Amino acid sequence: MAEKLKLEMVTPYKRVLSEEVDELTAPGFVGELGLLPGHTPLLTTLKVGELTYKNGNEVFHIAVNWGYLEVEDNTVTVLVDTAETADEIDLARAKAALGRAEDALKTLSHEDKKYVVMEAALQRALIRIQVAGKSH
Amino acid sequence: MASLKDIKKRIVSVKNTQQITKAMKMVAAAKLRRAQDAAVSARPYAEKLQSVMSNLAQREDGDGHALLNQRGTGRALIVLMTADRGLCGGFNANVSKEAERFILNNEHGFDDIDLMIIGRRGRDFLKNRVGEHITKVHEDITSGATYKTAQLIGQEVVDAYSDEKYDAVYVIYNAFKSAIEQIVTVEPVLPIQPQEAEEVIEDSVDYIYEPNRGEVLSQLLPKMVEVQIFRALLESNASEQGARMSSMDSASRNAADMINKLTLQYNRARQAAITKELMEIISGAESIK
Fold this sequence. Notes:
Chain A is α+β, with helices and mostly antiparallel strands. Helices cover 27% and strands 43% of the residues of chain A. In chain A, helix 1 runs antiparallel to helix 2.
């Protein structure tokens, strides 16, 4: 299969990635989303999750925050608030954040405005830990 | 004529000032480089977002999202970006004056205009001029502006707009042209003006939208606001450093000129004193003969 996907990933701080990949899995808003070359045009929002892409036999994992993804003409544009590769993640910090979020959630009620915030923090921490665990 | 000692004292004090302005210039130059880098690396994100938006807008048959609706001329909000510190030439004054003009002239005919100020200097400047319009002041965020900061401000603005507290939002900031040139810019933020796409894409392949177009749009639009504010913050920061650098540079040069002048004056005075002494000695010796 000669065709490849061109993956571009940008955050407000920098261009994280710009390379050719074979396949891509992203945490779409409505569910996990696998992309191969020749995909039809698509625009979706992303949620906090793990983005995986494959280049040859190598697999890369990136923890992404809220953002969105666009596919057009075999070009995948991913715009996210943050993107961290496994070795960029500070595992200790993520674990600490996880603990904090868990504690806060226990004390808050569902209606509380902060509940949503802490829930999001919890998710981010979980994803970071998950991705960091996959570094080799 | 000032005595030798007085002149000497002034030279020393000017030299001290020069040292400070020189140091400030160096610091500003280093910060400018960093601020410029930040502004440049934020660009791809903004551009991508922009292109996706115009793509969307092209296919949008206006299902009227709240942030796109033109609501007329009720209340407006200005987000003014200034610095927390002075000593940067006309940086703060220019942009603050523009805001003042905006409020006083009220060219768009708003019923009322509120002012949200970022940076202490803008507040100090406008407090006594249009103080009754100032509703909020953010301090100490300009120098280390992160995306998070912009997000918070963006959310605040979007929320206020969605609650119909305001019918239009503008930002006023110094756009960064070069280290010595800043352009005071007034930019409408809300309602979002969908940009006319330059070329209409022929094969209007419809995108698949997930979850659906309305949802995508309503998540993207607030993002636009945040990005616009983020960019303005970064540009303003870069401009501030640029303005400070060039004004400190000219201050250092002025100090050097002044030192030259004073040194000349000092030498003249010294020579005059020597001549005077000589004359006294000679005439004294003459009278003894």
